[in-house]
Amino acid sequence: MATNLAINDVLLNTALDMGGLKTKKDTVTLALQEFIQRRQAEDIIELFHGVEYAPDYNYKKLRHRK
């Protein structure tokens, strides 16, 4: 899909240099992938705040050592 965007040249060139990629298209694609991964990771981390643990749960007691 062809898209024309007005992207800040300083930001794009900085990202291009930092990423070590050859094209602006590759740089924007990588930036979008990393943005999506970060947001998905934040969503997963947020799920941990909804877990309720039993106050009497003792994982050490459940270990079986010989």
TrEMBL record:
InterPro entries: VapB_antitoxin
Species in which this protein is naturally found: Termititenax aidoneus
Protein name: Antitoxin VapB
Pfam hit, one: VapB_antitoxin
